[in-house]
Design brief:
Elements: E1 5-10, H1 14-25, E2 30-36, H2 39-49, E3 53-57, E4 59-60, E5 63-64, H3 65-75, E6 80-85, H4 90-99, E7 103-106, H5 111-122, H6 130-156, H7 160-179, H8 189-193, E8 226-227, E9 238-239
Parallel strand pairs: 1-2, 1-3, 3-6, 6-7
Antiparallel strand pairs: 4-5, 8-9
């Protein structure tokens, strides 16, 4: 008589775990050795339950099905681990492939397919799609290619299009400054160095003469005459020096 296949189910979704227990128990050559709901219980109870195969969900409260596979590979190397999950993402596939599990199945499969996969995995068959085995190396090559491309771009410097853009920007800024030069503000050192006749704009500002012959109150003219502030509409009163 053939020894029945002993299976330990590890799944935190209790309803799904019960469905799997019923489906596997209906097969004449399979015995469900136990049902647990987290990584710690699977690792602790596996030696006493002596399963031939562990059917584990990937996402568990305290870890992953890949963690179960790694731990049992060290403590019970003859026990196969088959990971059943609803998450078929490349990262999950790669993690399961590296963990030492014998296969990966999605929960989209029918119960009959899962029972058949359990038999195949227990007999030594590897149940990984090709993309799962190559997902991690492929992503590593992609990251290396991206880093190499970025390094080459930095070594080459700006592209011709970028250099043309920068040149047009600089030329445009220079033209704008030539058309409308920035005005010095009062108190600016550059303003203090300018001649009085040029301060305040073309028509004379608060500091400069407004009419020909005007001078500041109390200043000395070119002829040596001193002026004073106007006391009437006249320009000013001339006092002989």
């Amino acid at each position: 008589m053939t020894t029945p296949l002993r299976v330990l189910i590890v799944d935190d979704e209790r309803l799904f775990a019960e469905l799997m227990r019923v489906a596997l128990s209906s097969a004449a050559d399979i015995v469900v050795a136990g049902v647990v709901h987290d990584v710690a219980a699977a690792i602790a109870q596996a030696p006493a339950l002596q399963p031939s195969l562990v059917l584990s969900d990937y996402h568990l409260p305290d870890g992953t099905g890949a963690d179960v596979a790694r731990a049992l590979r060290r403590s019970l190397p003859d026990v196969s681990v088959l990971v059943l999950t609803g998450d078929p993402s490349p990262s999950v596939l790669a993690d399961v492939a590296r963990s030492g599990a014998v296969g990966h199945l999605t929960k989209a499969r029918g119960l009959d397919e899962v029972v058949s996969a359990v038999r195949s995995a227990a007999s030594g068959e590897i149940l990984f799609a090709e993309r799962a085995a190559t997902a991690a190396p492929h992503r590593a090559h992609q990251r290396a290619d991206a880093r190499r491309a970025a390094h080459d771009a930095r070594a080459r410097g700006p592209s011709p299009a970028r250099r043309r853009h920068e040149h047009r920007r600089i030329v445009g800024t220079a033209r704008d400054l030539a058309r409308d030069p920035p005005r010095a503000r009062p108190g600016d050192p550059a303003e203090a160095r300018r001649p009085l006749s040029t301060r305040g704009g073309r028509g004379g500002g608060a500091d400069g003469p407004r009419h020909a012959g005007d001078t500041a109150a109390g200043s000395v003219t070119h002829s040596g005459e001193r002026t004073c502030a106007p006391l009437s509409p006249a320009r000013g009163m001339v006092v002989k020096a």
